[in-house]
Model the fold of this input.
Amino acid sequence: MSDWNGQRVCVMGLGRFGGGVGVVRYLARQGAEILITDRNSEDTLADSIQQIRPELDSGSTRIVHGDHDPDLLDGINTLVVNPAVPQPWDNPFIRNAKERGIRITTEIAIAWRTLDSTRIIAITGTAGKSTTSAMTAHALNQCGVRTVLGGNIGGSLLDSSEAMNAEAIVLEVSSAMLHWLHEENVLETHAPKVGCITNLDPNHIDWHGTSDHYAQSKQHLTRALGKDSTLVLGNTLAGWASKSGAQVAVLDTDDRVDGCTVPGIHNAINGAMARRVVLAFRPDLVRTRVEEAIRTFPGLEHRLKLVAEVEGVRYFDDSKSTVPGATILAIQAIETQVPRDRIHLIAGGYDKGVDLSAIADLGSSIKGLYAIGTTAPELANSGGAMGCGDLTTAMARIKDSAEPGDVVVLSPGCASWDQFTNYEERGKRFAELAQGE
Done:
């Protein structure tokens, strides 16, 4: 839909990451009448509500807190679903909208359709997609290509005037986003210039229901790309090359960009992935110049960032680690600087139904494994972890035992929703505790 003027739109989930705010602002500018329904309280959504205060005050928008009452769909033309809603095919509110013949869409689909798809780079994967996306955008900008970064990494391009004038648009896309983009036929009709899938491990079973559905959602990107596009695959996904009609580049097993500012072999691999993506999008750029740009990438917040050094103990915030594989990579990165028996790891959090045995197995090789959150009992019962319950308790126990030269890493391998609003809040609290606040 290109003409929203006079349309009655229900936004299911304002959220706290910018997508809901962006789509509300955009639709209000287009003349739509908007009803927001969100189960979270006004206090929980305070920041997001403040950002749409002009729309609420103008009368174009109203918000209802509490359960998604089907009666809210009366007279609605379009339902905009927050992709975070799990297993949407079984959600009663969404099913009710479908039965009524209401058009169903998402913020990412609306944004994608407003952009020139020949300028889009879409990056996904279980681990490394955020860093690879940010590295790609950083390298392109450093090489003089006007680039914006958006998608799952936060915010909304519907709220970005820069996106319309950018030469490249790098979108981090989640498996949930890919599901919806495929459902709405957006990927197939607006295929990106370059697609990239870093790797695949079981994840988000709570959203997808099965690991097969998770993998299929990622594969929607491979199938959507045609001969005018390039698909970049991590070396573990070489078998997926045959599923795409695009030009395919598979990362070599030993492909790296060494000397990156961010530590770890996995980031050297992310750098190699970003280099392949950049050169696929702009083959006229000089490879060495691209690599130099990638090396200067400073890293993402909450992604193995050094946040404190107190009495000779260094504290690294890797709160964005929400899968076990990311935790393993974090430990491997840190052990390039100190032996494993000097590493204290804080792990655990919201239970997404993922096997955490790989994290539990770390307990026997590092100085200490401190389990927090809903999954703390599972990790503690493995015998290799100390059950702490919450982050404050874990940090107190670490400070009692840590010695100069030790490293403390918050790399939970789980989502944060059981005890924190999001991973940013979790990382911020870790930094405060590290600094004695």
About this structure: The longest strand covers residues 33-38.
